[in-house]
Amino acid sequence: MTTETLDSFHRGRFHLIQPLGQGHRSGMDAMLLASLVDCAGPCRVADLGAGAGAAGMAVASRLEKAEVLLVERSALMADFARRSVALPGNARFSARMSVLEADVSLAGRARVAAGLADDHFDHVVMNPPFNDASDRRTPDALRAEAHAMTEGLFETWLRTAGAILKPGGQLSLIARPESIAEIISACGRRFGGIEITALHPRTGENAVRILVTAIKQSRARLVLRAPLVMHGEDGHKFQPFVDDLNNGRVAYRRR
């Protein structure tokens, strides 16, 4: 029985080995998250809770000078990430990628000892579990871990992001709209210059995701950006700009 798939992203620019029937499978969320990273020169990027590594690999695929660390707690998913990075089709950026098996919730000396040093990264991206713990119950423990939010999750993950980012470094995340208050609260004094973009399936429909960026130690005010609508009038085809973001042609730059 097939237990994994080989999936292509960015119109075949890179490939990912993903579990079939268990754990989290990455798709458009990861590609949109990766589009939030924009750096012209060399930069260090950490993908927290990376799973099989889709978002981090999308960053490395698009940005030729980005060094990316995939941070994943699950030994199984970390192995998928390592195998994905080693695929021959990903050779053009594999030397700029590494995988760290570590828990994002570690703090202080335990976090540093695990390999996440203070003030080290220019960008941190994350696609944390954002289903309420009572939503979408599943017998797959690995999938439940990847999808179900625990109390204080954003506070914990943003604490780690704030510690490992350099001053002026950028946090980027994708989440459900109902988490907006928790995210802003968790940013606290760690991050400012918060920019939030609502992502709508179609004109007139409610947002299903939010894209959030923020800058470590910034004191700039929060900005609600113009929404992004994924599909055009036909209801199925992606809008050109969204399609470009999804396929790694452009970055979604801060305002």
Descriptive labels:
255 residues; alpha/beta; Rossmann fold; 9-stranded mixed β-sheet; two-stranded antiparallel ribbon; 9 helices
Q: What do you see in this structure?
A:
This protein starts with a strand and ends in a 9-residue tail after the last helix. Helix 1 (28-35) packs across helix 2 and helix 7 runs parallel beside helix 8 (180-187). The longest helix has 12 residues, at 153-164. The protein has 255 residues and is an alpha/beta fold. The chain is globular, with a radius of gyration of 17 Å. The protein has one domain (4-246): 3-Layer(aba) Sandwich (Rossmann fold), CATH 3.40.50.150. The mean pLDDT is 92. The protein is built from nine helices and eleven strands.
Number of helix segments?
9
Task: Give the beta-strand count.
Answer: 11
**The CATH homology group name:** Vaccinia Virus protein VP39
C-alpha Rg, in Å? 17 Å
CATH topology: Rossmann fold
The CATH C-level name is Alpha Beta
Average residue-wise pLDDT: 92
Find the structural class using helix and strand composition: alpha/beta
Architecture per CATH nomenclature, i.e. the level-2 architecture: 3-Layer(aba) Sandwich
Quick summary of this structure?
This protein is α/β, with parallel strands linked by helices and 255 residues long. The protein has helices spanning 28-35, 54-62, 75-85, 91-94, 108-114, 141-147, 153-164, 180-187, 240-246; strands at 4-9, 14-19, 43-48, 66-72, 97-101, 121-126, 165-175, 191-200, 209-216, 223-224, 228-229. It has a single domain (4-246), classed as 3-Layer(aba) Sandwich (Rossmann fold).
